[in-house]
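We modelled the chain as a single entity of 251 amino acids. Its sequence is:
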Amino acid sequence: MRTIDLSGKAALITGGTRNIGRAIAQALAEAGADVALFYRIDDVAAARAREEIRTSTGRRAEVYRVDVGDETAVETGVEKALEDFGGALPIVVHNAMGHRNIGGLRMPDICPDQWRDILAVNLDAAFFLTRALLRREGALPPGSSAVFIASGRGHSPAAGHAAYGTAKAALIYFAAMLAQDVGPRGVRVNVVSPGFTDREGAPEEDKPGVIARTALRRLGTPEDVAGAVLFFASDLAAFVTGQWLQVNGGG
């Protein structure tokens, strides 16, 4: 039987200390990977995630406070993580996302600074992160896997999500193009696109309607998303790149 064994590998997960990112970090660690977690604000959640992963899996877990929408901060964070994890991070998961408090704000009421902030966290960050790693020899060795976390808003338009949906749609296409650029280096790039996920902060009033129009008649969980990432990160997906997988229960 083929199983997923990530022993001897290190994974970098942005937005890795809460919600979907936290579940991804846990799943990768349970499969044997050591994990480096980037986070932006919540020091308490970061410390808790680090200790819980260490205790429950026995794997190494380190946290780094990094604003992934800032190129200089990403370069510094990547350099530190590579130093701590032996110079290679063959699993990279760009999960950091943000509405920056403008979810539901419709055009033309979005101001340019809000637009740029949304694109910085959800799109520019993936560019900064992969560029920083690809420029450092050995950081993404052959066999490496990069996974971007998109969103249903990246392919299913909805009022009030112009900036966020645009960023996620572009992220999906960036991954497809990046896969072509780095494929000859033996690096794979894929996208996981969650639907509505039952996580901290998910609006309770939306849940019944989501369940009713989802084929599996339940909400997705962070662990559902983590399972898809685990597949893409593993050798089971050794000939899979440039792909986009919706994890939405048929919603």
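As a brief sanity check on the tokenised model: The beta strands are 10-14, 34-39, 61-65, 91-94, 145-149, 188-194, 244-247. The longest strand covers residues 188-194.
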